[in-house]
Amino acid sequence: PPRAWSSLSSAMASTTAAKTHMIKADRHLFSSSDDSVVMKQILATHSPDGRDINTRPLLRLVEDVLQRATPTVIVTPQAQLEPVDDKAHHVEVGGMLEALAYTIHRISCEITCKCSGGGDAHGTTLVLLNSLANYTWDAKVVIALAAFAVSYGEFWLTAQLHTINPLAKSVALLKQLPDILEHTDALKPRFDTINNLIKAMLDVTKCIIQFKELPSEYISPDTPAMAMALAHVPTAVYWTIRSVVACASQIVSLIGLGHEYISSTSEVWELSSLAHKVGSIHGHLTKQLDLCNRHIGEKKHIEAYQNLVRLFETVHIDNLKILRALISSRDDLPLIDGSTKRRVSVDVLRRKIVMLFISDLDIINEELFVLVQIYNDTHHGKVDRNYEVVWLPVTDRHVPWTAAKDETYNRLASNMPWYSLHHPSLLDPAVIKYTRDVWNFDKKPLLVVLDPQGKVVCPNALHMVWIWGSQAFPFTSNREEALWKEEVWRVEFLVDEIDPVMLGWVKEGRHVCLYGGEKIEWIREFTNVMRRVSQEAKIPIEMVYVGKSNPKERVKKAINVIATEKLSGYWQDPVMVWFFWVRLESMWHSKMHSGRTIENDPIMREVMTMLSFDGSDDGWAVISHGSMDMVKSHGRKIIDCLLQFDSWKGSVQEQGFVPALTGALEPYHTHEHCTRLILPGDTGRITEQVVCAECNRPMEKFVLYRCCND
User: Fold this and answer.
1) Run of H or E residues at 26
2) Is the model's pLDDT at 537 over the cut of 50?
3) What is the pTM for the complete model shown?
4) At a CB cut-off of 8 Å and minimum separation 6, what does 580 contact?
5) Contact in structure between 560 and 655 (CB atoms under 8 Å)
6) Which part of the chain is the Sieve element occlusion C-terminal domain (predicted)?
7) DSSP assignment of 687-705
């Protein structure tokens, strides 16, 4: 920051510089000197008068000169000169050069004069610093580089053009450049070393300017990283200007010496050592600059997060402010339209209900498939959509982005008919923090609903969507509450549209048996005894296997056995099995969020029973007749009861099969039990990601509820 630059002299009085080497005259470049004495001498030359110069455009021009003045390029009559863009060179620096031209010329003459006279390099550097006393540290070093660029550029311009330009040829003869150019092979080590030193000088200068340009609203001079950097800037300026003197001395020494002067190994080593010194300074400054930028990034992150919090607490006339803060802080076209695959702005979402689909890249295939199906069914044949969905992919910024991740992202985005963020990197870290802190995003996807004014009307509508699909529109918490008031526990609600055939059986008044589990022995015994009871009672019962939640290989194996041995009906599509259990889990989440318990909510009790069946190692069954008449049991209880059918079959004629079975099961319900309920959920203080030991993928978090008194 400028105020730190102008007041650095007093702040630096007590700072000890790194150990330095001194360049002596007569091409004997190095000698030791006391660190604190040198630092005091450097600081004594600094007396800024408050003027502030934008040095970056001037440095750009200087860099262009130094890069074009390449010793290895000699222009022949046949060579084509590279065209120069005058506008690019002069527009930014024109006004500045009018004010600095004389100073640059004076410093250039001073450098040439001191180097020609064989003066002490340290003394020459201090003289130049005194001549630049009124300028800021960044201006001192850029002006010194500009002064060197003038003489260095003139030298190589003459060298490059002497074969095609009469004026250049005459000047080259006066300076004896032809002889030098004839011996470029011998002088090449020196030229290469000078080029390396020039590169190091430019790197340090850019670093100094970057420190000055750091935004003062995010970092102050007393910030540790900034304070340490500012303490080293005078040393960096000193050694850069001293390197200018060394390079200028080398060029001056070539004039008039012709082929008689051959570069010594010691001089090349001395220049290399100086380049190493300046490079070391650059490395230190770069490290401090990284720390400063990290500090600024953290400050901006906090500011962006607080801005999001304020925006969501404020009432708006539309949703654009909210959406731009969430989606498009760095890009005018941050979204891809899933239907056209074209990039669009957030303006397409203005004053619409927007559902933010927040997930990582490990989306379950079944989850995406069902969500796409619900979305397409809702919008089929409609020009204007009732709501829009936007996918916000959350990725770990600490893990490198790979080609495999890019492929996964593109595959997922291509399968989504709604809007997607153009690239996960566009999601600001502050937004990711907000999704985790406020919306509690961990690994399970969220569907956050914003109304046309950008207000959150449901922090996660995914459970609502799984339970009721498009009927839940406009996906508000109020709508969820209203839907629950209309709902009762019945087969149609349990199965929904997953199996239309089964819904047909229910309407026809047939007996239907849903059963699950993964133990093959239990499945065989249960289906056989149920079939025998059905035959003896002369009541057809349609049996359908619905597996377990998270259907894996054991469920697939069970389905194969059921199909091969023709034990019962089953759902061939794994998506149907997955969706059946996800709906039950969603019912539990929805009821829990609204504060319902098994004591005050009969549907909650039924859902908990079904999920506890799934959490056990035993099989289970639900038998229904019509819509509301249902009985359920699990493990040995249901099988043992069915095996004793002869003892209660008389009740079937009087009461019906389901009521008779309900009564027959009562003696089997003892106080001894061991119930497990396993649900996806929050794992409290365990916030770090746990990966699978087999495949290294992040593991899902579950909560186990257990009650055992057997």
Assistant:
1) none
2) yes
3) 0.73
4) 495, 498, 546, 571
5) no
6) 479-709
7) -S--B-TTT-PBPPPEEEE
Please state the rounded mean pLDDT for residues 97-107.
85
| pLDDT at residue 78 is higher than 60 | no
Beta bridge partners, 355, equal 389, 449
Inter-residue long-range contacts of 696-705, CB under 8 Å, 24+ positions, other chains counted:
697/362, 698/360, 698/362, 698/443, 700/443, 700/444, 701/442, 701/443, 702/678, 703/678, 703/679, 704/615, 704/676, 704/677, 704/678, 705/676, 705/677, 705/678, 705/679
381: which 2 tokens? Answer: 């044949």
For residue 336, what pLDDT is reported? 92
d(CA 140, CA 8): 14
Amino acid at 54: N
- pLDDT tens digits, 440-487: 998 889 999 999 999 999 999 999 999 998 888 888 989 999 999 999
Q: Identify the CA nearest to 115 among candidates 102, 128, 103, 105.
A: 128
Residue 473 C-alpha from the chain's centroid? 32
Band (pLDDT 50/70/90 cuts) for residue 130 is very high
At residue 11, the pLDDT reads 34
Q: What digits encode the pLDDT tens for the residues 320-364?
A: 999 999 997 678 899 999 888 999 999 999 999 999 999 999 998
| Amino acid at the residue 707 | C
Q: Contact at 8 Å (CB) between 252 and 177?
A: no
Residue 524 CA: distances (Å) to CA of 437, 531, 537: 48, 11, 20
Task: Locate 570 and state its tokens.
Answer: 């089953």
State the Cα torsion 113-117-120-122 to the nearest 10°.
10
686 falls in which pLDDT band (50, 70, 90)?
very low
- Angle at CA of residue 262, ends 256 and 264, nearest 5°: 130
Pairwise CA distance, residues 234 & 17, whole Å: 9
Beta strands in 527-619 (DSSP E): 541-545, 569-570
Four-point Cα dihedral 500, 503, 508, 510, nearest 10: 120
Please state, in angstroms and rounded to a whole number, the distance separating the CA atoms of residues 58 and 140. Answer: 12
